[in-house]
Write a structure and sequence with these properties.
The complex is a heterodimer of chains A (about 250) and B (about 325). Chain A contains nine helices and ten strands. Chain A has about 250 residues and is α/β, with parallel strands linked by helices. Chain B has one domain. A two-stranded antiparallel ribbon of chain B has the order 1-2. In chain B, α3 packs across α10 and α11 packs across α12. The radius of gyration of chain B is 21 Å and the shape is globular. Classes of the chains: A alpha/beta (about 250), B mainly alpha (about 325). The interface between A and B is large, with 46 and 30 residues.
Chain lengths: ~250, ~325
Amino acid sequence: MAFALQTEKLCKSFGALTVADNIDFRLEPGARHALIGPNGAGKTTFVNMLTGAIAPTSGRIFLHDQEITRTSQAARVRLGLGRTFQITTLFRSLPVLDNVALAIAERTGIAKRMWRSASSCRDIVEEGKDLLGVLGLADDAATPAQDLPYGKQRLLEIAVTLGLKPKVLLLDEPAAGVPSHDSGRVLQQLEKLSSDIAVLIIEHDMDLVFRFARRITVLVQGQVLVEGTPEEIAADQRVRDVYLGEAHA
Amino acid sequence: MSGYSADTRIRWTEWLPWAAAGVFFFVLPEYLSLGARILIFILFALSLDLILGYAGIVTLGHSAFFGLGAYTAGILSARLGINEPFLQLVAAAAMAAALGIVTGAVILRTRALTLLMLTLAITAILLEIANKWTTMTGGADGLSGVQVSPILGLFRFDLYGKTAFVYCLVALFVGWWVVRRIIYSPYGAMLTGIRENRARMHAIGAPVYWRLVLIYTASATLAGIAGALLTQVNQFVGLNVLGLEPSGDILVMLILGGVGRLYGAFVGPVVYLIAQDYLAKQYPEYWYFGIGVLLIFVVLFARGGLLGIVDQLRDQWLSHFKPKSSARASAR
């Protein structure tokens, strides 16, 4: 069957340092999958290879059975691969509405238009407002992104990517920097995501991972240590040793 | 502010420059040649604002397109005997567009200082070609003997510069209208996105490089038209349209007026060229000193340029009448 996203023996070395070592990874359609691992395990490198930000040394990547190993970052987005950033990456001085509208305009091809006014593109503006409503940001539409409280900036980060209507969504630490009592709000929004979207989440917040994910892959020193359900991972002695052990000590 | 949240209707203040130009025409007929020069540099500054203010491309080589347009019009007339003004404009636009797309395709792969140096190198190369290719360009002596046929076969360029002024005003109006459409369009919004956060534009699937090449070419075309207008009005082209100096001048004018505000491109050249005209008469040796003081003032105290000061004053004035919202919120 077709996987939403799949890698085959994916490797990346920087000189003598191997940060991805023969990673075979499969993301099912509609998956809620988490990628965890200690610092320096190669999680961000792996995501950057998936999105095309860096090229793998060897191995192959497939999106819905279509090979995308050499496809450009922008073309992968058009094929339905969306990502969010660990460090908030927004159009800081632009209004919240414009942040999502720019993404929607790219998806629909309106962004190339030079001869009509942007604010008269009703369908873009309406879709943008609907999207902000879904994420609880409707009242902030006119606020510059940089003036939002940090937790809402994280939600906007997700909203911008949802504007692309991705089929596969890579969430790079969506709750990074959000105080723990607020990370529940992020989780609440993530649980509302359509089941058509396959989600891969990279996250340090173990509460969030174990509540959200139905499968977990543990990455250690660039290699897949183990993959399984949250229960299996929680019970796995090797995982406890390298990862949970130190985190819960 | 452009973008999806903007109100794109033309505000009454946007008609002020055109009303001012009309008044100028009737009240100060002895200054019409200075007036035409100002209009031309406003068009040049507008073209720069499109790439610098909206797309965030910092350049020290925008005179390459201005100068190429100026020399295209000059060579057509003085060397080839083609004096039809619109033909000269179209040819200048085409040449500048061609240079824009070719050089843009190469240099827009780079960023920041590398990009700045490459833009400078291109205009320096053109300056050297204009300097050495004397049979075509007249070299350091400049190219005189430029003639312009009556516009539409009716309006002759007169001694007092009336025709020239109106001609430049019409050209600027068309240029302004085109630039205004672009910056309020989805394309304009997309450009501000590139300026604000290029990594995010890549991540939402925008082909950033091609988008920049296209707007760079459009900007080059406008700058080329402005250059051709200068040749037609002066009936002369000299080396001073190429190289670092005119690039720097136009950058200073735009920063003075305010970058990325559309009308900064209007205010800057007006203040700069009138100050230059006045100071050069009063203090022929030190006139740059006054410009320098003005620029230091703007860069230190008014980051949004002279228009930024106007905005601040207006906001203060408005909050004076509506003290509730902002004053109380900040008092808390």
